[in-house]
Amino acid sequence: MEEQLRNLNKIEGVKGSAIVSNEGLMVLSLLPSDVDPDAVAGMAASNFRNSSTVAKVLNAGKTKKVIIETDTDFIIFSTIGNGFLAVISDKNVNLGLLKIRIEKAVREIKAKILEG
Fold first, then answer.
1. Structural domains in the chain?
2. Residue 43, H or E segment
3. How many whole angstroms separate alpha carbon 87 and alpha carbon 9?
């Protein structure tokens, strides 16, 4: 799974990525040194749960991805079954390309989880 994170981190504009459990525990982190991985893990799980609740209340289907846009960055959480893939990028990233590469990484991570 580290290979998938490394590949995402090679995309121009990506600052870091991580895999987080549904319970908010860090599984694997390739985040910048100035980012607290445990804080990211807890916030990722909490944010995804809250977003899933909103989608359920609105009868909007199952949440696959949560994208937070700030004035400087994108923070993207994608479900991988029993956890999340978290990616942090700056606003200059090619968001379309990043979303495609995230979907590829999600498929590959899910396959590795099934193998394990």
1. 2-115 (3.30.450.30)
2. helix 37-57
3. 8
